[in-house]
Design brief:
It is built from six helices and nine strands, in the order E-E-H-H-H-E-E-H-E-H-E-E-H-E-E. The chain has 183 residues and is an alpha+beta fold. The radius of gyration is 16 Å and the shape is globular.
């Protein structure tokens, strides 16, 4: 991915996308803090408190790429791509007799600000993230912690972009679905 990518939304708005940087901590905290309760309940790769967010921005690592989209310096989307799988996902997939090479698999977790959902931003960002995944020679993308089965829009989004349903599982008193994309 180049330094900054331009994204044109359906309504003609020009959005910028790039990797998260150390100086984005306050903006990322504000983004996460301003998500609706429903959106926060559906996105959970890490805590949303200020200490966690500042720690992430101060300790950016090469094994987790954190993409942001912004409109006039305000973050409006945040997507994570971690090399390999998180332990709980790997254990669950092992129960399905599915084993992925840690060197060719990524774990993916997207979020889009409530006011930008259904704007085309998620699809455009995912296309750029997918290009990055392919250039890095990854072969599979799994959803970080699956997707909540009640989140019909997200399930539709993933299926539209080629993710296959693998199995349902119960976590945090919710029905979830594991999904995989073969690249």
């Amino acid at each position: 991915m180049s330094e900054v990518e331009n994204i044109i939304l359906r309504n003609g708005s020009n959005i910028k996308m790039r990797l998260l940087q150390q100086q984005d901590a306050e903006k990322l905290y504000n983004y996460l803090h301003n998500l609706s309760a429903e959106s926060r309940s559906r996105f959970g790769p890490h805590a949303f408190d200020k200490e966690t967010v500042y720690n992430i921005c101060n300790n950016l690592t090469n094994d987790t790429q954190r993409f942001i989209a912004f409109d006039e310096e305000k973050i409006i989307a945040y997507m994570l791509m971690k090399e390999g799988m998180i332990d709980t996902d790997a254990r669950r997939y092992a129960q399905y007799n599915m084993f992925f090479d840690e060197n060719t698999t990524v774990t993916y977790a997207p979020s889009v600000a409530d006011t930008f959902q259904n704007s085309g931003l998620g699809s455009k960002m995912f296309s750029l993230v997918l290009e990055y995944i392919k250039k890095q020679c990854f072969h599979h993308a799994v959803l970080w912690g699956g997707v909540q089965a009640t989140n019909a829009r997200a399930v539709h989004f993933y299926e539209k972009h080629g993710f296959a349903r693998i199995a349902n599982f119960w976590h945090d008193n919710k029905d979830n679905i594991d999904m995989v994309l073969s690249v």
